[in-house]
């Protein structure tokens, strides 16, 4: 009987969700640190729920004080800047080809980034590696 009473009481208590909001205005390209965000009660779809999820990430857009922080507003810190010369790596099996390229945007580890090959001037897309190189696959190369 006690179990039934506890179950009924637990069902009557609404579940409280939390949402992350900007505690102050945060500039784009700024790394999120303590004091930049705060948690409020409420559930907004597509937003962060805890501070731990967002700490150390980079603001992709301006975050305005009091507004929810959406998943797409933050990302890994950029390790490649726009116009930076990067190594383009193409691997198929045991074969590896490397070339120099110019990054056409900023990107963090794992981001899809457009890069212009400095030799051929072809624009290709690849993923940013932890060492700052960009790896491409046969599916991301341009078709001639």
Task: Pick out the low-confidence regions.
Answer: 8-14
Q: What is the distance, rounded to the nearest whole angstrom, between the alpha carbons of the first and last residues? A: 74 Å
Strand order of the largest sheet: 6-7-9-10-11
Corresponding CATH architecture of the largest domain: Alpha-Beta Complex
**Strand percentage, roughly?**
35-45%
What global shape is seen?
A: elongated
Going by helix content, strand content and strand pairing, the class is mainly beta
Radius of gyration: 22 Å
**Biggest β-sheet: count, sense, barrel?**
5 strands, mixed, barrel
CATH class of the largest domain: Alpha Beta
What would you give as the CATH superfamily of the largest domain?
A: Antifreeze-like/N-acetylneuraminic acid synthase C-terminal domain
Listing every helix as H and every strand as E from the N terminus to the C terminus, the arrangement reads HEEHEEEEEEEEE
Helix content: 10-25%
Quickly count the helices. Answer: 2
What's the total number of strands?
Answer: 11
How would you sum up this structure, described in words?
- The strands form 4 sheets. A 5-stranded mixed beta barrel has the order 6-7-9-10-11.
- With 144 residues, it is mainly beta.
- Strand 10 (123-128) and strand 11 form a beta hairpin.
- It is built from 2 helices and 11 strands, in the order H-E-E-H-E-E-E-E-E-E-E-E-E.
- It has 2 domains: 2-74, Type Iii Antifreeze Protein Isoform Hplc 12 (Alpha-Beta Complex), CATH 3.90.1210.10; 78-140, SH3 type barrels (Roll), CATH 2.30.30.
